What we know:
Blueprint: E1 2-5, E2 9-12, H1 17-33, H2 37-54, E3 56-57, E4 68-70, H3 77-84
Parallel strand pairs: 1-4
Antiparallel strand pairs: 1-2, 2-3
Helix pairs in contact: 1-2
Amino acid sequence: MIIRIMGEGQLRLDETAVEELNKLDGALELAVEQNDEASFSSALRALLTKARAVGTALPADAIEPSELILPREGATIGEVRDLLADGGLIPG
Length: 92
């Protein structure tokens, strides 16, 4: 599975990592729903950190179709709320 972190690049993830990322996505969604800045910041950081840890970066010149798009580091609650409008960042 290929994911993109906005403004950063693409990562190749093993399908087994999606479940763990989905849990972190749930925490991020909850923080957005509750408009909780502190929880939002830590949830976003945890999601991106885990994605980077379990993913393998694709070369900068590689352009693959991304199955998932994660918000950029430092994204606002409003920006992530817009991304979540389609049912979450990570399907499943």
